[in-house]
Each structure stands twice: as C-alpha cells, then as structure tokens.
Amino acid sequence: MLVAGKSALVTGGAQGIGFAIAKRLVEEGARVLIADIDPELAAASAEQLGGPAVARSVGCDVTSAEAVKAAVDAAVEAFGSLDVMVNNAGITRDATMRKMTEDQFDAVIAVHLKGCWLGTRAASAVMREQEGGGSIVNVSSISGKVGMIGQTNYSAAKAGIVGLTKAAAKEVAFRNVRVNAVQPGLIRTRMTEALREDVWASKQAEVPMGRAGEPEEVADVVLFLASGLSSYVTGTVLEISGGRHI
Ligand code: NAI
C-alpha cells in the first residue's frame, strides 16, 4: 500500500482522469475527498469507491477561493490531515483566436490556472504545518508544452501551471511539501471523446506508442508523485504521452 493512511483531495474527481486518480489512491490505502463542480456525480463516484469510510465528496467550483478553502477544510475535518492534493479539474473551450471569445479565454484560465493556484495555496497552507509535509500534483497537459491550434487559452493555462508548480515547489520545499506536475497526452475521457473522429485519428497518429492512453495510466504516475516513492522529487513535470511531442 503506497499511500496507506494518507488523506487526499482530488479536484474534478467525479469522472475521467480525476476519478481514476481517486480510485488508485483508495486502492493504495488513502482516504479521498472528491471535489467537483458536479456534486451529484461526485457523490455517486465516492459511493462507487466504497463510501464514507474511504471516499467522500463535496461540491466545489475551483475558481472560487472560498470553495477551494472549504474543500481543503472538509478533507482535514473528515480525515484528520491533508497529505495529497491533486489539482485536476478542467474544461476546454477550443476555438481559433479568430473565433475565441474573451469569455472562453477567461473561463479556461480561471478553471485551470487560477483553480490550480487556489488549490496549491490552500493545500500547502495546511501541509506546511503538518509533521509529514505533503505532496501536491498539478495536472498540466502536453498542450502546455507544445501549444495546440485552437487552444490558445488551454495551452496558456497548462503552461502557466508548470511555472506555478516550479515557483510553489521552491517556496514550500523547506517544509517538506512537494509540488509536481504531470502532462498527459491524448487520454481517453469524456473531454477527448468529444473530439471529431478525424481530429482524434490525427492526434493518435502523432503518438510513437501508436495508441491513446487510459486514465489509469495517468493515475499510476500521480500515485508515484503522491507517494513516498518520489520523496526527493519536487518541481518536476512528468509527461504521460506515449512519447507524443517529446
Ligand atoms: P473530464 O471532463 O472527464 O473531467 C473533468 C472533471 O472536472 C469533471 O468531473 C468536471 O465536472 C470537473 N470540473 C470542471 N470544471 C470544474 C470546476 N470549475 N470546479 C471543479 N470541478 C470542475 O476531463 P478529463 O479528461 O478527465 O481531464 C482531467 C484533467 O486532465 C483536466 O485538467 C484536463 O485538462 C487534463 N488533461 C486531459 C487530457 C485528456 O486527453 N483527456 C490530456 C491532458 C490533460
């Protein structure tokens, strides 16, 4: 059990990659609070993971400082500490710059970049005061490494998460709080199932391993960063992309 007895919070954990992360953490002995903007789905997902003893849920919009702080407090209240924070919540509002509205730009920056900052700030405030410190994992994207057409908002936000991760890692390392990021490539979830078939095929063709990844393959890397296996790893960015855009 790699995270036995640890308390974890996963934003956007009601489905997709976040749910796979929450599941993996529970399997490895953690108790998890799923914080998601969709409270019904979050509750159903927590139930699916085994219910209140190991998984709970809270409605939370990560763009709200109060809501993020309340979620962190709820995890501490429910499980006695906060050892692992996964800032995973995300949306896409793809459009080329010619067509992208300011609202689409702002929404994506707010959920990914501000949401991640709020989560990192609130979690590290708790973790730095704890005996064992903690581990924060921010979900960036390969889109933040290379820049994707139609994603000036998303690529900017995901690249911003890398800068945020490195700066935060430096600020809290002395308190044994680690902050790392992951950059998934093409992963099969509701977000990517919305892609047109030809767009999906062209993205998949860019993957040296020749296939899309599964949410569980992201969850395994997050588990590594959450656990003591990565005790001397901070401020890093791990790509989970089957070799795409290396
Ligand atoms: P998804 O759409 O399946 O799940 C996203 C979850 O976030 C949903 O449960 C949604 O309700 C929640 N959410 C959305 N806005 C929220 C908010 N304001 N506050 C709280 N929760 C909110 O998406 P997926 O694919 O699981 O994505 C998870 C993360 O992985 C995102 O940050 C995404 O950008 C990132 N990612 C996904 C890739 C993929 O290929 N699917 C590739 C690279 C990164």
Topology:
Elements: E1 7-11, H1 16-27, E2 31-36, H2 39-48, E3 55-59, H3 65-79, E4 84-87, H4 102-127, E5 134-139, H5 143-146, H6 152-172, E6 177-184, H7 190-193, H8 197-205, H9 215-226, E7 237-240
Parallel strand pairs: 1-2, 1-4, 2-3, 4-5, 5-6, 6-7
Helix pairs in contact: 1-9, 3-4, 4-6
This protein binds 1,4-dihydronicotinamide adenine dinucleotide (NAI).
Residues 11-12, 14-18, 36-38, 60-63, 88-91, 111, 139, 141, 184, 186-187, 189-192 line the site of 1,4-dihydronicotinamide adenine dinucleotide.
How would you sum up this structure, described in words?
Helix 1 links the parallel strand 1 and strand 2. The chain has a seven-stranded parallel beta sheet with strand order 3-2-1-4-5-6-7, with helices on both faces. The chain is globular, with a radius of gyration of 17 Å. With 246 residues, it is of the alpha/beta class. Helices cover 46% and strands 15% of the residues. The protein has a single domain, classed as Rossmann fold (3-Layer(aba) Sandwich), CATH 3.40.50. The site of 1,4-dihydronicotinamide adenine dinucleotide has 28 residues, from helix 1 and helix 7.
